[in-house]
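Quick one - inputs below.
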Amino acid sequence: MSSYIARRFLLGIVVIILVSIASFLIMRLLPGDPLSLYLYQTNISSLTEEEHKALEAKFGLDKPLPEQYFDWIGGVLHGDMGYSWANNLPVSRIIEQRLPVTLYIGIIALIIAGLLGTVLGVICAIRRGTWMDVVISSIANLGITIPTFWLGILLIYIFGLEMGLLPIYGYVSPFTSVWGSIRTIIMPVFCLMLPPLAGLTRQTRSAVLDVARQDYIRTAWSKGLTEKVIVSRHILKNAFIPIVTMLGMQLGTIIGGTVLIETVFSIPGIGRSLTNGVFAKDFMLVQSVALISAVMVVLANISVDIAYGWLDPRIRLGD
Amino acid sequence: MTANVNDTAMQPALALKRSEFRRIIRVFFRRKIAVIGFVIIFLFVVMAIFAPYIAPHDPYAFDATKRLQQPSPGHLLGTDSMGRDTLSRIIYGSRTTLIIGIFAVVVGSAIGQFLGIVSAYFGRKVDTIIMRLIDVQLAFPGMILMLLIAALLGGGMRNLIIALSISMIPVSCRLMYAEALSVKQNEYVLAARAIGSGPFRIIFMRIYPNCFSSQLVLMTIMMGAVILSEAGLSYLGVGVQVPQADWGSMVNNGYPYLLTNPILSLSPGIAIMLMVFGFNMMGDGLRDALDPKLRGVI
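Output:
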């Protein structure tokens, strides 16, 4: 088991290195002058050829690409992620300010989706064909068809503009005002949560139904065990492996979702700064955000692998 | 029975194929929800093909005197900030969405299937390299990767198709890989190798046909996901170029007028939902008809 986890970690590191190279190269290939927004921000109207060159040298843009890459990645290892031209701030400062906002919203969405999705999926499966199954499954089917950004706009229209119940944009930190914070994140969290919740419900339902068809479940029934014992001790234990896999995959969905949702609700999170960064050709910012999200996805996958071993003795004791 | 042996023995494959096809059609059309999905998609396709005849107005005609009109008999869904008829733009938008969706899914899954089947068949180094690259792509959240590629290539339909199809590769590759690994174990593959068939003959003539049905199901269901991504990218502003009629950008363009003309932003979203719903339900029905084992996998 430990060698298995060590191998997964090694692979994860390889994946992260490749992601960093890929995002580095994609940003360099973007057309246009990366410094134009820096000039705009700093109110420098025109530059001579030499001044422009000097500015490029200041940000290391005149160096060969491999050197630029190693400068950046070396800095990242020391906690220095470079300089964001478009914001005229160090990237680490922007991430310090914005990542907690995204994590706050994303983690709440992931926890709700994970818990509720599993519970609803199990209910659907063990009450298959009843009205509860029909209602929950239909809502889950709807959940995977709604474009989240559109749902956000619909909620803004209904609860923000028509009813005036909730603020339509912006973000309040929970350290400033707990109630104010809840009011601002309620709609974004709902939008962010819906696709993973719907996906998890559907997949949990079919995973549980799969296990429920097995012979040992029939044996359990014929032994006269109660439904509660069969569901909790026999079905759930075996259905958890596919469910955990899906939960791990939903992290990527949430990270991608924040890009859209933070734009809809004007939330100052990392997803929004990524979108702005792409348009502004803000190399360092976009590279670093892509790297951070890749690290999170890789860590989630490794946790899933570790969870496998914990849930399934065959894997734990296998080698 | 003895009299018919020769007849059926001569064309067993054909007979089997025909009855299998009938069975698939029967199972598919027995599920009401699959039929509803099929009908929705059929209507969208008709709408896209005959858009010029169905649309009540020219979707690109600017008219400064008719800006931001509320719904009326002349303009059933009102007009946008440039006086263009919203309903006509939604009807033409189905063209954009279907073309982008179909091309992205076909191109993306063709590449993914090829990579998956090749790495499953050859194994060893080919397998390691391809599957690690797929891992790298999976570590990139799809939306971020598509945003980067679309920004890199610049907007427009062709570039959007490229960005979306790249994002599709890992899913179809993984499914193909898993299926091909198990199909590869069959005796007829061994037999084909024994009679001297080359690797690509075995891959395309023996293994691929046996993996096709699950890929077809996956492609149908991926249509829904691709349409949602396309709308998201267009909403963010890296989608099709103005003034092309596109649902995602209509949601975005209508947003500033949400208070006075909510229908501008909200109606294209309903079209997106309907089409995604149609493809999802059709995919579910196809899965049950073609390969019920896939339940829970896709």
